[in-house]
Design brief:
About 25% of the residues lie in helices and about 20% in strands. The protein is built from five helices and eight strands. Strands 1, 2, 3, 4, 5 and 8 form a six-stranded antiparallel sheet that branches. A two-stranded antiparallel ribbon has the order 6-7.
Length: about 210
């Protein structure tokens, strides 16, 4: 199945997601945080290589923004990446992005919400490394380190994946993968993993 081409007008809108975030946006999101009691910081990785990839990613961002007890703080630029773990040319390329959130949801509930959003986009789980309309991974949650098989934190392969670390570094240059080190220090070791910045595409940070 070939991915559809994102609408050309999606490239014309200004991108509020690339640092520095406008002060007015920061103020609005910080003000929204006051409605959350003791929110936790989390980082999510989004990917899509089926259907309208850009719309799928934006739909995920919007769905998280509509989730009670959750505020979207930052959305990274979009990157295009070859599929992980499969023979070259056997699948369409992915669009990838990273979302930074504040949430009162515990990790298990955040995972449940992520799965529900994937299912809303007809995510199919019958093949490992198979093509996906939408893939959501919890990369990090409030610095928690856990080997719980239901949800390992941080994501056990995040530190090895340029398609996670590159967009994360864009929105948080000082970010750190718990137990693995600073993102900026991990990136040089992943230089051979081709990720292409799609400056013609943007994801909108919800109001």
């Amino acid at each position: 199945m070939s991915p559809s081409t994102p609408p050309p007008d999606g490239a014309s809108a200004p991108d509020p997601t690339v640092q520095p975030v406008p002060a007015s946006v920061v103020h609005q999101v910080d003000a929204a945080d006051t409605t959350l009691h003791n929110p936790k910081y989390a980082v999510l990785s989004l990917g899509s290589n089926l259907g309208n990839r850009l719309e799928n990613l934006q739909g995920a961002v919007d769905a998280f923004a509509d989730t009670p007890g959750l505020r979207v703080k930052a959305v990274s630029p979009v990157y295009e990446t070859e599929p992980w773990g499969v023979e070259p040319g056997t699948q369409a390329a992915y669009f990838n992005a990273v979302v930074v959130i504040r949430t009162t949801l515990p990790p298990a509930s955040l995972l449940e919400r992520s799965h529900a959003i994937e299912e809303a986009f007809a995510r199919v789980r019958d093949t490992r490394w198979g093509p996906r309309t939408l893939d959501i991974d919890i990369v990090s949650y409030q610095g928690v380190v856990s080997d719980d098989p239901a949800l390992t934190l941080p994501h056990p392969r995040a530190h090895e994946r340029a398609f996670v670390l590159v967009p994360w570094h864009d929105v948080e240059p000082g970010a750190e993968v718990p137990g693995r080190g600073r993102v900026a220090e991990l990136l040089p070791g992943l230089a051979d993993q081709g990720v292409t910045h799609r400056g013609d595409l943007t994801l909108v940070l919800p109001d």
